[in-house]
Amino acid sequence: MIELKSLCKSFEEKDVLEDINAVFQNGITNLIIGQSGSGKTVLMKCIVGLLTPEKGEILYDGRNFLNMTKKEKIALRREMGMIFQSAALFDSMTVLENVMFPLDMFSNDTVRNRIKRAQFCLDRVNLIEAQQKYPGEISGGMQKRVAIARAIALNPQYLFCDEPNSGLDPKTSLVIDELIHGITTEYNMTTIINTHDMNSVIGIGDEILFIHNGHKEWQGTKSDIFTSSDEKLNNFVFASELFRKVKDVEIQNIEG
Amino acid sequence: MLKALQTLGSYMILMGKTFTRPERMRMFFKQYTKELSQLGVNSIGIVLLISFFIGAVICIQIKLNIQSPWMPRFVTGYTTREIMLLEFSSSIMCLILAGKVGSNIASELGTMRVTQQIDALEIMGVNSANFLILPKITALVTMIPVLVTFSIFAGIIGAYATAWFGQIINQEDLTYGLQYSFKEWFIWCGIIKSLFFAFIISSVSSYFGYTVEGGSIEVGKASTNAVVCSSVLILFSDLFLTQLLTK
Q1: Where are the alpha helices (DSSP H) in chain A?
Q2: How many cross-chain Cβ pairs, A to B, lie less than 8 Å apart?
Q3: Which pTM value belongs to this model?
Q4: Chain B residues closer than 8 Å to A102 by CB
Q5: Which of A84, A108, A163 to mutate to test the interface with B (most CBs of B within 10 A)?
Q6: Cα–Cα 20 to 30 A to A248, which of A92, A125, A126, A182?
Q7: Which listed CATH number (3.30.428.10, 3.40.50.300, 3.90.180.10, 3.90.1300.10) goes with A1-79+158-222?
């Protein structure tokens, strides 16, 4: 479980995050949604420690990340996995070497076991056949799947995904969403996903945090989202005609 | 002035992060071997080519423009050797390498930064500066004496080529000149200077690449800044090192 208490972050006197309080439970997919520039990525960067907030607390199962020593932070980071918007695979390494990288760095296992574990992770994302290819030789969707395999190689307790579906077609996005959701429930991880893909919100949004202009505007489940009266949330989530129709159908189902 | 101090400060902080004990020695040696090949072995070709032609050109220029009946005939060989040993194979070769290797390092690290590969390392709990920069610095510092030695030999072969193929100078005179009043210390001077220059090229270029913010345009700017800054620092340090080593 990850808990945020009164988190504030600003850049040159411009407040980007103001008083964010939230709880992200393990075993479910927690989504952070909001418009571009609302502060989602800054919030995620603060949670993983790439940015330091001015105020507040970030508690990883009760351990305050901001009060930790450098050594404790490094130890905690080994319990984290992250999938970046651009996949962030190492260009000079093959797919297998990319997945093996965290194992090579931190595991004391034998080479054979490390390869076995990396191949298991690649098999989990259905990419075992691409293990000898370089990131430049595979598609964007495959790169995201490799990033997932790399992120889970060390059995992390916390998984962070920054817009995992950006630049992907709807079908591949669905595959990625289902993979992340499946892995989260299978390994009982605390998963936080940054997204503005409404298919993901409706598909795997077990718990949703809506950020608007650096403030926490709304928090609830994917079924709460259809009945919410929050104007800003409705303007954002149901901006398209298609999703307005989906909302109408869902409300009829609830009332029926 | 304030910006220069800030840059110096952040360069020192980055070097502090870089010069720590590697987390995994096997990963360090893997990277180190890769960099030896990428930064050192891949530069041998251009070093040999440039040194060969410069050696030949120096020899021709001195023979045609400096040598006169009032000077001993060995002066061409002697001057060619001194120029190659004292300046060309160390300083000028490192200026050329600052262009080739420096831009390579800065653009590689800059691209890794903008595509979030460095962030990915940090999230994993890896000291990215130590993992990426230390192998580059140690590899270039290791390879530079080899490159300097190759450059000296290629330059001398270039000078001989003017005798063999151009008939510009007598081979015996050239050999006598190359051996005349030889000081072994001058070879060490070149190697010692090049070690400093290798550190400047690799660390300064790494700094500019590692600290890129933005996109591809910034990576290009960082690459240019890395080459310009390394070259200026090489020229300044050459001035001090030459005075220090040849006293």
Answers
A1: 40-48, 70-77, 95-106, 111-124, 140-152, 170-187, 198-204, 224-227, 231-237, 241-255
A2: 51
A3: 0.86
A4: 124
A5: A84
A6: A182
A7: 3.40.50.300
